[in-house]
Amino acid sequence: MTGGRVGVIPVGMMKARQILKETFGIDQYRPHQQEAVEAVLAGRDVLLTMPTGGGKSLVYQLPAVVLEGLTLVVSPLISLMKDQVDALERKGVAATYVNSSLSAAEREKRLEAAVGGKLDLLFVTPERFRSPVFEAVIPKLNVTRLAVDEAHCISQWGHDFRPDYSRLAEYRQRLGNPPTLALTATATPPVAADIVKHLSLRDPVIVRAGLERANLFLASQQVYDQQQKVDRIEEILKQVFGAGIIYGSMIRDLTALHEELRRRGWQTLFYHGELSQSERRAMQEQFMASEDQIILATNAFGMGIDKADIRFVIHTQVPRTFEAWMQEIGRAGRDGKPAWCELLYLEEDLAVQHQFIEWANPSLDYFVGVYRTLERWGSRIVSKDIDDLRSELLYKNKADHRVNISLKWLEVLGLTEGSFEQHNLRIAASLDVDALPQSVGCEDKRRADLEGLLGVVRFASGSEVCRRQSIAVHFELEPLSDSCGACDVCMDAVAELEKQFTPRQTKPTPLRTAKFERGDWVRVDGRHIGQIVKVRGQGDRIKLIVESATDLRKREVDPRRQRVRKMENQSG
After folding, report:
1. Distances from the Cα of 569 to the Cαs of 140, 456, 521, 545, 563, in angstroms?
2. Are 114 and 178 part of one and the same domain?
3. Which residues contact 400 (CB under 8 A, 6 or more apart)?
C-alpha cells in the first residue's frame, strides 16, 4: 500500500543495482524494497513499514553508498548500532557510530571523520542531539539524508514511545531539513499519521508491507494451567529441530520454566535484563553460533538478532501489543525455510500485562509528584538514588517504569540535568504544568494500550478468523482474498507441524526424581521442613502428603513442580 508517486526511475538506479550485488551480495530486492529505495534515491521523504526480517535497513544503507553526502541514522539501541556498523564494515562500507559507550576522545575522532566526509553512514541515538559537543558539530556535517529507525517511538500511540524521539522534528530542522526516511516494523494508521506529523514529512512516499512471509506458520493455543503450557512447549521442542526463542514477560516465570524444562532434560540458554552485559553477550553469542540452541528470553532479547535459521518462536504469555508480537515472530525463518510461531494463551497471564500497562503510563499527577519530590530534596538529591525515589513514592517494584519514564521526560524537557548514576542530578528549571506536552501523563494512551491488549486477547483466543486476516484488519492493510495457507485456522496445525519440520533426534534425558518414602524428612521450596506421611502414585508421577514440622499441618506436594529435597542424615 503506497501513498505519493515516485515517478520516473531516478538517476542512480543502475548504479544501485550494481552496488546491491557487488557490496551487499544481493541479486534481487525483497518485496517493497525497490519502491522504497527508488523514493530515497529520488530525494523524497519516505515512511516505510516493513515487518522484522523484511529488509528495512537496506533501504537507507544502499542509497547511502550510491549517493554523495552523509546519511545520519537515528537508532534507539547502542547494541544494535554496533552490530549494524560491524556488518557494514565487513562489506567495505564507511560507517561508524557515536554513543555513550565510547570515550570522549573516540567520539571526537569519529565525528572528525564524519565532518571530513570520510563516512557514508553515521549512527547516533536521539539523546546525542542534547550533547553540546554534538550540537556544535551539526553545522559542519554534510547530512544529505536522515534515517529514523524504530520510528514508532516518535508516536505516543506507538508500542514503545520514547520521549527523546518527540524532539526529532526539531533536530531535523537543525540539520537543514534533509530528505528523511522513517522506518518501523509495525505501525497502525494512527501511528503512521503521528510519525508523518511529528517528523514534518513532506508529501511522503508511504510504503506499508503486511506479514507476507508465508514460511512463518502462525498458531495460537489456549491453555488452562502452567502444566499444560509446559507440555505444549515440550511438544514443539520435540517436533521442531533447530534454534528457537521462547519469550516470556516475567523473569520469575521464565526462571520456573527454565527449571522445569531442565528437570525434563532440556538444556536452554536464559536471557533477561538483570544479567550483566557480559552475561547477555555470552548468551547471545552462544545462540548465534548454534544450529539448535533454545533460549528463554524476555523482550530484552531480539533487537539486532540477525540469525537466519531460527526455526521457532514461542510466546509463553500474551504480549502487550500486536506490534510487539509481530516484531518478535519476525525473527524466525529469515532464511525462507519453514518456521513455527505459536502463542500460548493462559487467561491468568493477562494480569501481568495489565500491570505492565499501568507501570508504563505515569499519570500527570505522578509525573508532577516525581518533580516535586526531587525539588523537596534540594541539595540532598546528590546522596539519593532511584530506589530512594521509588520508596518516597511508595512504589518499590523495579518493573514499575513510571519513575524511569518520568525522569526521562524531566531530562528531555530540560527540567533536570545530570543523573542519579553520576550523582549529579539537579533541578534545572521550574515546572509549568500548563506548558507540558500533551504526551506527558496522557490518559488516552493508557486506554489505547488497554484496547491494544484486548485486541491481542481476541486474536489469541479466536479460532475462526485467519491469523493473517486478523493482522490485516488490525493494521488496516488490504484483506486477503483467500486462505493464507500458513496458520492454524486455515490449515491443520498438527499435520503441518509433522509435514514441514524435522523432529529432534536427540531425546531429552529427564533428571531422576529422588525416591521418597513415608517417614522421610524433606525440605519444601528450599525453606520449610516437613515429614512425609503418605506417598501417592508411583514412578515419576507421585504426590507427597507432608506434615509441617512447625505447625503440624498436612499439605499435598508435587515434587515435579516444587523444589522438594530429601534431607540427608535427618532423624525423626
Report:
1. 77, 53, 9, 21, 19
2. yes
3. 359, 390
Considering the domain architecture, whether residues 383 and 457 belong to the same structural domain is answered as: no
Look up the domain containing 544 and give its range: 521-566
In this structure, the answer to whether residues 192 and 232 fall within a common structural domain is no
Which string of DSSP letters, residue by residue, matches 119-140? Answer: -SEEEE-GGGGG-HHHHHHGGG
d(CA 420, CA 225): 42
**β-pair partners for 218:** 341, 487
Q: Which three cell numbers stand for residue 327?
A: 516484531
Burial of 82 (0-12, 13-18, 19+ CB in 10 A): middle
State the residue for C-alpha cell 520514547: 162
CA-atom Rg of the chain in angstroms: 26
Of 484, 486, 406, nearest to 442 by C-alpha is 406
**Chain segment 344-384, per-residue pLDDT in tens:** 999 998 888 888 888 888 999 999 999 999 999 999 998 99
Number of domains in the chain: 4
Please choose, from the candidates 384, 383, 434, 438, the residue with its C-alpha nearest in 3D space to the C-alpha of residue 409.
438
**β-pair type (121-124, 269-271):** unpaired
3-state secondary structure of 457: helix
Strand locations in 321-410, DSSP E? 339-345
Alpha carbon of 460 to those of 221, 279, 347: distances in Å? 7, 33, 10
What's the Cα-to-Cα distance from 343 to each of 147, 296, 438, 468, rounded to whole Å?
33, 14, 35, 14
Cell output for 403: 519513575
pLDDT in tens, 250-284: 888 999 999 899 888 898 999 987 888 788 888 88
The pLDDT tens digits for 313-322 are 999 999 888 8
Is the pTM of the predicted complex or chain greater than 0.85? Answer: no
**Element containing residue 73 per DSSP (H, E):** strand 70-74
pLDDT of residue 61: 95
Q: Is the domain of 475 the same as that of 541? A: no
Query: Do 311 and 501 meet the contact criterion of CB atoms below 8 Å apart?
Result: yes
Q: Where are the beta strands (DSSP E) in 473-538?
A: 521-524, 528-538
Are residues 89 and 9 part of one domain?
yes
State how far the alpha carbon of 55 is from the alpha carbons of 141, 220, 477, 497, in Å. 27, 26, 19, 27
Distance CA 313, CA 328 (A): 8
Assigned domain for 535 exists: yes
Q: How far apart are CA 182 and CA 529, in angstroms?
A: 60
Q: How far apart are CA 502 and CA 434, in angstroms?
A: 61
What CATH number did the domain enclosing 126 receive? 3.40.50.300
